Amino acid sequence: MNPPASVSPFRFGPKTYDFSTKTFLMGVLNVTPDSFSDGGKYFSVDAAVRHGLRMVEEGADFIDVGGESTKPGSDPLPLEEELRRVIPVVESLAKQVDTPLSVDTYKAAVADAALQSGALVVNDISGLSDAGMLAVLTRHRASVVIMHMKGTPKTMQQNPVYEDVVAEIAGFLETQAKKAGVAGIQQMMVDPGIGFGKTLEHNVTLIKRLHEFRRLGFPVVVGPSRKSFIGTILNLSASERLEGTAAAVAACIFNGANIVRVHDVKEMSRVARMSDALKPDHFLSAVPQFG
Fold first, then answer.
1. Which residues of 92-110 are buried (b: 16+ CB within 10 A; e: fewer)?
2. What is the pLDDT at residue 26?
3. Residue 37 pLDDT greater than 80, yes or no
4. Active site residue 261
5. pLDDT given for residue 4 in this prediction
6. Rounded Cα gap, residues 90 and 87, in angstroms
7. Dihedral of CA 122/125/130/134: which sign?
8. For position 270, what pLDDT does the model report?
9. Residue from 227, 266, 273, 279 carrying the catalytic annotation
10. 261 pLDDT band (50/70/90 cuts)?
11. Entry pTM
12. Rounded CA gap, 190 and 210, in Å?
């Protein structure tokens, strides 16, 4: 696989993002009672909208609204409940900000409703597993984040095994991106899925070799924020992982991330600006190719 030309700027509504100029931040907005790090804090529509507006003020380039907890061991959320949680928040934020809104869902019906309500991006942790997702994305001319997950949230941490974690995930993302391209989707981003069916060693390897995913030719999204691998390394709870997250975000940026998905927007915005200023210009020049 040959190195691609630089990714062209993407347009999200009135905004154009040039991924060659800076690292962009995707703020996490969990409208759930049971997310692993902030479950319940923004469960009401008013609290969620206020938090979304605050993240925009703090420097978020995207707001990623999710209504279903996908922490390890979690059960699927009924469609009607996910719609009830997510759609009012998307509708309200879309009327108040021009920051691109993303919906964190793997259900085509939720994506469809969110895109009708003002979202511009679907962040699909299942990598387009729902048979109806491509049609929804194409109909709305939406952008998509294609993420890799081994198994389901319920089962993904039950002894995940890979022969070559980077090559296998890159192969999956490439295959799914080709399907999306054939369907007519123009703006795709890829995410190796830190913490989704990966051991500590897998997560560390993915961050160290993150630059290799740039060879797929799409902006690379990565979400290390407050993840359990940080807690394992530092022996800290989710509420104490700010510094570990900062180090992981900096490492991701140095290794090729275009977008980092974070909970602590104000702090990680500063980390991203500093990391961008210090990042070597030639960090991709000597990267080995797949195969």
1. bbbeebebbbbbbbbbbbb
2. 98
3. no
4. yes
5. 42
6. 5
7. positive
8. 98
9. 227
10. very high
11. 0.91
12. 11
- Residues 254, 283: contact at Cβ < 8 Å? yes
The pLDDT assigned to 5 comes to: 42
CA-based torsion, 239, 207, 198, 123: positive or negative: positive
Please give the angle made by the CA atoms of 264, 125 and 48, to the nearest 5 degrees: 40
Cβ neighbours of 72 (radius 10 Å): 16
* CA separation for the pair 183, 202 (Å, rounded): 31
pLDDT of residue 240: 96
The Cβ-side half-sphere exposure at 8, using a 13 Å CA radius, reads: 6
| From 139, 261, 266, 270, active-site residue | 261
Task: Tell me how far apart the alpha carbons of residues 204 and 184 are, in angstroms, rounded to a whole number.
Answer: 34
| Helical spans, DSSP H, in the chain | 45-58, 79-96, 108-116, 133-140, 165-183, 200-208, 228-234, 242-254, 265-278
Phi, psi of 91, rounded to the nearest 5 degrees: -60, -45
Residues with Cβ within 8 Å of residue 247, at least 6 apart in sequence: none
What residues form DSSP beta bridges with 190? 146, 220
pLDDT score at 291: 36
Task: Tell me, yes or no, if 227 is annotated catalytic.
Answer: yes
N-term to C-term CA, the chain: 7
Dihedral sign (CA 119, 110, 193, 291): negative
